[in-house]
Structures are given as structure tokens and as C-alpha cells.
Amino acid sequence: MSLISWTKEQFGTSVTIADEQHKVLFGMLNDLHDAVPKGDRAAIGAKLDTLVNYVVEHFAEEERLMTETGYPGYDAHKAEHTKLLETCGGVAAKFHAGELEITQDTTAFVKDWLVGHIPNVDKHYGPHLNSKGIN
After folding, report:
1. pTM recorded for the entire structure
2. What pLDDT score does 59 carry?
């Protein structure tokens, strides 16, 4: 069962690459969420690593677009990315060290972050990037 579903109304940024990457992130998060109750640590670890690595790539792409176009909200946006990456990196490291289990509370945390971040932060870069020819 899906934890989160992408809809244009709720999550659309008007920037195609960001929207497509967000859809991929949602799919990866749903895959991790669905793997958790099965208890297969190897599968959970692989899905967790795939998700975290993709988040790193996605954030780098967003940040590249913002810096190349002089987005005025870049510093605050980057700070939010950095904070989430530190949290996710710590969770992944503790999981792989056997110090932490990934639970559906973990996936719910990521979902809640996305539900708060994309509509309230990412959507703000859409008009700026669009004005610079990035659609």
C-alpha cells in the first residue's frame, strides 16, 4: 500500500525535472515502506541506501539549478536539504551498524518531511526557475 502519492495539485513545482524526480523519490519511499514489515534487513538496507543516494542526487540537481539561476532563497533551501541529509545519513549508518531498525515510523518521518517541504519550500523555486527558462 502506498505511503505517499504524487499529485500535481499538491506537489507540482512547475519544473519538470524536479517533479519527475519527486515522483521517483515517492516510489522509492513507498518501496522502503512496503519492505519494512517483511523484516528482511538486506532488502530494507538496499532500499534505504537507494533512497538516500537518490535524495543526494536530487538535492544536488535542485541546488545546481538554484545556483545557476541565482535563486534568492538558495541558502535557506540548502540548509533544509543539509539537515535532512544529516538525519538520513545518521539513520542509515546506525541501521547498517545494527544500532537501529527502520520502522514505518521512519518512513512516515520522511513522508511528513516531503509533505511539508515540497509544497511549502520547493514550490517557491518554480516561478523563479520558469522565469529563467527552466520548465
Report:
1. 0.96
2. 98
Return the CATH number of 8-131, one of 1.20.120.50, 3.40.50.10420, 1.10.10.10, 3.30.720.210: 1.20.120.50
Q: What's the distance, CA 80 to chain centroid?
A: 11
* Grid cell listed for 125: 523555486
Summarize pLDDT for 80-114 with one digit per residue, the tens: 999 999 999 999 999 999 999 999 999 999 999 99
Are 116 and 105 contacting, i.e. CB atoms less than 8 angstroms apart?
no
Residue 41 has a CB neighbour count (10 Å cut-off) of 15
User: What is the CA 22 to chain-centroid distance, rounded?
Assistant: 7
In this predicted structure, what is the pLDDT of residue 95? 98
Residue-wise over 56-66: b if at least 16 C-beta within 10 A, else e? eebbeebbebb
Sign of CA dihedral 108, 109, 110, 111: positive
